[in-house]
């Protein structure tokens, strides 16, 4: 295997200015003819070396002159399983290449493949080389003209840009020709052929241009597409309002397919989506699903500017488009739904998944330096931490400064393939702050820890010291101090806010740019509570040893709703720690008193209350501990949940009863109510006397949110109750795989001893197939990521089960296998008995002959 390094970047030796593709579809013999206009860059006499992944050459012409393969007596092309080297001395020429592929045998879902009877493509990051020979790198931009030929079975033949011609062919086939005037890298190429239901609409842009909107879904699913289409229009409007960015083609198409490795793909003018992020109606989609559909539709749309118009120079720069686009979709979602729940949602992702990535052997900066398989770097670090870095620009520059920086970015780089440094430099032009230290966020990996100390001085002064330290990571040992905006509130017992004597706190924010900094506050005898890193103003951990009293003060008086939620989370964490130390302990009555009064005070603020009543997930708790013994931590968490339900029974019941069920609508106030009610139901379900609430909600529900809420709660009820509701659910949704995925996942996350029998049963379910990533993720992925107790069972059976499965899956779909191997590679946080067993399975994987480079990269790093 070959390691690619960011430092080795070289500009392309040739450019391809235009591409003419002619694709005649066939399941096992699709013919691809490409005609490329090639120009040499600079003066050199290197051959033209194209990428091509196991492709044959049927015919090759240079300016119409045939070229044969190299032989002893002629200087022809050299074909390997990954490249095609063409000796040529012209500076400008037309290259004609005929090749062929077999979409029906393509189970890796990269390149051109068949998804449930429709042809579709996925080219990012390096899939175009599985379709035809090309300079498969993002800094080669070309204008595409594509002719798609197919039988009548596929009435819809789509590609990027605008349709310019179509017609019938003599052999019963037909064709459509597409032209995309915007030069693009080949990873944005797409082709789709199939028979779909079509939803159409239109959008008038801010300059009055009419854009046709087309959404293609499986036959019979038309009614489930309206929400996605409405979301698209909201996203188009938002990008005009907030960033002044307008759409640039006459048509915008979205196709939903069932077989897809990730969420969606932003191909120019022709997005291809996992149907999970398109189809939604009240009977089949939860509020979270609706949220995700809107967020992903927006994300892909926003890529049209941040990704397509301005793209990446090389794949190490991925966060240039992904971090920025995630930030944009987060801002959009916050505007469409609610700022608070959005922030909490995204911070949970950081704390559960990004922090664990940083603590593992896959730790990398948001701009990685070394890559074996690029697909392994579509990570929470590049995406979500990347978005947090953009958020810090936004914090530091302010709304207007950020907008100015963005305008400058587009002014300088529209139509180019650029780097993260180019982005920083555009931002730099919009601020008087010096961003050079800040840009360390791009190159330094790891999660910084901010420590807070408080020291009483004479004459009633208190000195606060903030210090930062980034623990070394597997990829980097030496760490430097980062430039961090830190939101801070200094709160007195009665809720009064204090300011500092030195004036380092500005607008509730301090800049920490050294190892440590101090400031003093006149406390005049008062107890002060510092709430630090409000709103998660930097992607860091905080070590702020506060008393329960102080945490309750933050909850009671904090200005920032996020801080209030966070204080509650710390209280729960602290209680769970106590139970870890002494399992028989009962939690201090004062805490229950505090929570009870919090509940009664906030009973009308269902949004905050709902979030505050969520106990931190097992995964989040792991990130706050070292050498986790899974059984011990689970036991303590479960014990805390039981005490929580018992101690707060009356208060929880009050909340439950105060929220009346209304007919379903997806609007924020209703979403908040359902959320809060379902959180409370899950607590009450731990008490046998409330089992009936669960079954009643299940029976009465008119929407998937409440139905699934009831099912989740039923996980805590008697087994008979759970089983019978699950059976009813399966019967009702037997024909809908996307809904069944929820059912699969609930089964796979049950912490029961017979889990392997259950999973085997799930894998034999008529709706299950290993070739569909959504199914695999819902069964095997859910088990590995979220069934911590059984995955980490100390007889090693969970680890072995996952490894066994991955060995089979890897042959079919390496990308998905490499995703699911993640929990196994994150052994660093666990106790030694876990580590040994996890490494044993990683060793088995590593020794396996024919392992994909996707899985190899993660497993070998993990064992290094
Ligand atoms: N850019 C794609 C992700 C491609 C993943 C390739 N393995 C979707 C997105 O981030 O919008
Ligand atoms: Zn993206």
Automatic annotation (TrEMBL):
Known catalytic reactions: Release of an N-terminal amino acid, Xaa-|-Yaa- from a peptide, amide or arylamide. Xaa is preferably Ala, but may be most amino acids including Pro (slow action). When a terminal hydrophobic residue is followed by a prolyl residue, the two may be released as an intact Xaa-Pro dipeptide
According to the entry, every stretch annotated as the Peptidase M1 membrane alanine aminopeptidase domain falls at 227-438
* Pfam families according to UniProt: DUF3458 (PF11940), DUF3458_C (PF17432), Peptidase_M1 (PF01433), Peptidase_M1_N (PF17900)
According to the entry, every stretch annotated as the Aminopeptidase N-like N-terminal domain falls at: 21-188
> Could you tell me the EC number(s) of this protein?
3.4.11.2
* Residues annotated as domain Peptidase M1 alanyl aminopeptidase C-terminal: 549-864
Q: Which GO terms describe its molecular function?
A: alanyl aminopeptidase activity; metallopeptidase activity; zinc ion binding
Q: Mind telling me which PANTHER family this protein's record contains?
A: PUROMYCIN-SENSITIVE AMINOPEPTIDASE
Protein name in UniProt: Aminopeptidase N
* Native organism: Alteromonas hispanica
Its ancestry begins with:
Bacteria, Pseudomonadati, Pseudomonadota, Gammaproteobacteria, Alteromonadales
């Amino acid at each position: 295997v070959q390691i690619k390094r960011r430092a080795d970047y070289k500009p392309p030796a040739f450019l391809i200015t235009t591409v003419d593709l002619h694709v005649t579809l066939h399941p096992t013999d699709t013919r691809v003819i490409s005609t490329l206009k090639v120009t040499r860059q600079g003066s050199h006499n290197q051959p033209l070396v194209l990428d091509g992944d196991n492709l044959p050459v049927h015919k090759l012409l240079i300016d119409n002159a045939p070229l044969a393969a190299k032989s002893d007596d002629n200087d022809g092309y050299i074909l390997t399983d990954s490249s095609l080297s063409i000796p040529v001395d012209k500076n400008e020429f037309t290259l004609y290449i005929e090749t062929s592929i077999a979409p029906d045998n393509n189970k890796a879902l990269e390149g051109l493949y068949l998804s449930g009877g429709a042809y579709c493509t996925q080219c990012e990051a390096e899939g175009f080389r599985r379709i035809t020979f090309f300079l498969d790198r993002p800094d080669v931009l070309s204008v595409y003209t594509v002719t798609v030929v197919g039988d009548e079975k596929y009435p819809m033949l789509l590609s990027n840009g605008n349709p310019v011609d179509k017609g019938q062919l003599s052999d019963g086939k037909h064709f459509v020709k597409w032209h995309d005037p915007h030069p693009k890298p080949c990873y944005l190429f797409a082709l789709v052929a199939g028979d779909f239901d079509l939803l159409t609409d239109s959008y008038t842009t801010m300059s009055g241009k009419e854009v046709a909107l087309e959404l293609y879904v499986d036959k019979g699913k038309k009614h489930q597409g309206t929400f996605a289409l409405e979301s698209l229009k909201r996203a188009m409007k938002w990008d005009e309002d907030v960033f002044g960015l307008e759409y640039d083609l006459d048509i915008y198409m979205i196709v939903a397919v069932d077989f897809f490795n990730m969420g969606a793909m932003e191909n120019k003018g022709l997005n291809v989506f996992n149907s999970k992020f398109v189809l939604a109606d009240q009977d089949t989609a939860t509020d979270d699903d609706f949220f995700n559909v809107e967020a992903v539709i927006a994300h892909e749309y926003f890529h049209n500017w941040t990704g397509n118009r301005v793209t990446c120079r090389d794949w190490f720069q991925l966060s240039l488009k992904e971090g920025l686009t995630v930030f944009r979709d987060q801002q959009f979602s916050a505007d469409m739904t609610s700022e608070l729940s959005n922030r909490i949602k995204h911070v949970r992702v950081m704390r559960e998944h990004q922090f664990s990535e940083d603590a593992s052997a896959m730790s990398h900066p948001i701009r990685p330096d070394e890559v074996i398989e690029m697909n392994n770097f579509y990570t929470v670090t590049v995406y979500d931490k990347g978005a947090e870095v953009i958020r810090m620009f936004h914090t530091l520059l302010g709304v207007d400064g950020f907008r100015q920086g963005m305008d400058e970015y587009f002014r300088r780089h529209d139509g180019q393939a650029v780097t993260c440094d180019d982005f920083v430099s555009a931002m730099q032009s919009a601020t008087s702050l010096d961003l050079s230290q800040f840009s360390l966020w791009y190159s330094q990996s790891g999660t910084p820890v901010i420590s807070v100390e408080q020291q009483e001085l004479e004459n009633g002064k208190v000195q606060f010291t903030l210090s930062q330290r980034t623990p070394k990571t597997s990829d980097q040992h030496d760490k430097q101090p980062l430039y961090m905006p830190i939101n801070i509130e200094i709160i007195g017992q009665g809720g009064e806010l204090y300011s500092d004597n030195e004036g380092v706190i500005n607008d509730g924010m301090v800049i920490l740019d050294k190892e440590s900094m101090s400031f003093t506050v006149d406390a005049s005898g008062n107890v002060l509570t510092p709430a630090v890193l409000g709103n998660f103003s930097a992607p860091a951990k905080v070590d702020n040893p506060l008393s329960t009293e102080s945490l309750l003060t933050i909850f009671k008086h904090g200005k920032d709703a996020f801080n209030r939620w966070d204080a509650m989370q710390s209280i729960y964490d602290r209680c769970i720690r106590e139970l870890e130390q002494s399992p028989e302990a009962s939690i201090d009555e004062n805490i229950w008193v505090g929570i009870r009064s919090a509940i009664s005070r906030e009973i009308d603020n269902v949004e905050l209350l709902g979030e505050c009543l969520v106990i931190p997930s097992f995964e989040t708790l792991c990130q706050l501990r070292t050498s986790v013994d899974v059984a011990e931590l689970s036991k303590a968490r479960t014990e805390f949940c039981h005490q929580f339900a018992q101690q707060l029974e009356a208060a929880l019941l009050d909340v439950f009863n105060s929220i009346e069920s209304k007919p379903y609508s997806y609007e924020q106030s209703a979403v908040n109510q359902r959320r809060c009610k379902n959180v409370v139901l899950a607590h009450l379900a731990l008490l046998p006397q409330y089992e009936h609430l669960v079954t009643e909600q299940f029976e009465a529900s008119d929407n998937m949110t409440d139905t699934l809420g009831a099912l989740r709660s039923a996980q805590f009820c008697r087994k008979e109750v759970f089983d019978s509701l699950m059976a009813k659910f399966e019967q009702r949704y037997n024909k809908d795989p996307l809904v069944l995925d929820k059912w699969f996942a609930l089964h796979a996350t049950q912490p029961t001893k017979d889990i392997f029998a259950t999973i085997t049963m799930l894998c034999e379910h008529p709706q299950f197939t290993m070739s569909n990533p959504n199914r695999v993720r819902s069964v095997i992925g859910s088990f590995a990521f979220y069934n911590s107790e059984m995955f980490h069972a100390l007889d090693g059976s969970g680890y072995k089960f996952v490894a066994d499965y991955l060995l089979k899956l890897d042959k079919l779909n390496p990308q998905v296998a490499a995703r699911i191997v993640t929990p196994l590679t994150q052994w660093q946080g666990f106790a030694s008995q876990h580590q040994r067993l996890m490494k044993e399975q990683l060793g088995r994987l590593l020794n396996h002959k024919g392992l994909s480079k996707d899985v190899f990269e993660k497993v070998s790093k993990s064992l290094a």
